[in-house]
Amino acid sequence: MKNNSNKSGIPRETVTLILKEERFEVEKQKLIDKSHYFAALLSANFLEYGQTEHVINYDISSILLQDFIDWVHNDKIAFTSATSYDFEELDRLLDLLELSGVFTADTLQHLLVEDLTNRLERHYFTPPKIAIRAWSLAQDLNINVLRDLSLALCLDRFNELPLDSICELSKENFLKLVGNINVRATRSYLHQIKREWIKHHQDFSFPLNIIENNKVKYLHAIITFGHNNREQYIHCWDGKDLLELTSFEYPTDIIERCSNPGRPLKGMQITARRYDLYLCGGEYDYLGSGKFNKNIWRYSLTSKKWFFETVMPVERRHMITVYLKNKLYLVGGVGRDRNALDTVDIYDIYTGDFTYCYKYFPDKDVWKEIYLGDICELSSIKYSLPDTPILALQTMSCYIDVVHPDEMVLKVVTDTCNVK
């Protein structure tokens, strides 16, 4: 083994890793400390003990091995940026995650899992092809949070998954996708994908009616809060029993603002989409204080974490919040100076943008598009769309009428007309 000196002048012992025709010098003690595989290989219990060179017999690239060595020496992943969603970079991270399992480098695996899960949480930036590979790899490595987040992304954006990636799935994993009640795809498309998978594998032992029998079951849920107004509880009614599914606290930012007595957040709305809860708007202290929460926060029921999502273009409280497909609608409510709002802000979670604003004309019961600059202070561009209503109000669920706050009006926004 070679002896070099570190910055302190203290001799250090190195070993050489040989991959095909290339040679990589690594500091021995750091390699032992960070990999159970090499700790065992370089121990006195193995014949390789005392050797200065070790051949890597795994089918990996030299770039991947160098990425691993860079982490061993520097305690960080050199090639990545936390804000990057480039496919090649994410694929490289997954390669390194797979190698961390081979070399049993637990610290590296933990670092990569945290990095990848944080990126998957911002799912509208993540290439769907990455999600399907991350899901398969997370199952192999038994990493539950990464597995669940990547599966959720695969189900939500199933139509965007590459056909070749789907066809390469094992039969077990393929059935987990097409047989999942949460998959967002038409039955005709699922049957088309099924035929392609069968053709690729020449496996005709496909379960009968797995797609036809796949029906969504809706359960009623309610969110309640404890005596300290910090912890929230989600209860679910299955027709027989009221079950507590989980609990969560407000985001730290809101808890700190509400820490003093008499400064609660009032009029905020919480709505759900698949595996996430969205907390929108509200007013601090007392109604009419003018101290609004303009942030939209998202709580992942999978990772149990809050994430800042975006800033609302207009302050609102006691509004209707509803998801239609991948768009969050903020309808009406009360704004500054207790003014009743007759506009709608629409947030697209796939792009991260507020795209349109609409105004409600009660005499005609229609919503018409208006200048974003005049209402939302976002732009002076006017988009031209047909004047046909894009939303309809039906008697279903409850909200507070901002004109007559003592009355409860039974209305809900439903998906109709030209909503895309």
From TrEMBL:
Q: Where is the BTB domain?
A: 13-81
Query: Looking at the Swiss-Prot or TrEMBL record, what is one Pfam family this protein matches?
Result: BTB
Question: Cross-referenced Gene3D superfamilies, in alphabetical order?
Answer: Kelch-type beta propeller (2.120.10.80), Potassium Channel Kv1.1, Chain A (3.30.710.10)
Q: What keywords are assigned to this protein? A: Kelch repeat, Repeat
InterPro entries attached to this UniProt entry: BTB/POZ_dom, Kelch-typ_b-propeller, SKP1/BTB/POZ_sf
Is Repeat included in the keywords of this UniProt record? yes
Which PANTHER family does the UniProt entry name for this protein? Answer: LD33804P
- Protein name, entry field: Uncharacterized protein LOC112459378
Q: Which organism is it from?
A: Temnothorax curvispinosus
Upper taxonomic classification of the species?
Eukaryota, Metazoa, Ecdysozoa, Arthropoda, Hexapoda
Please name the gene that encodes this protein. Answer: LOC112459378
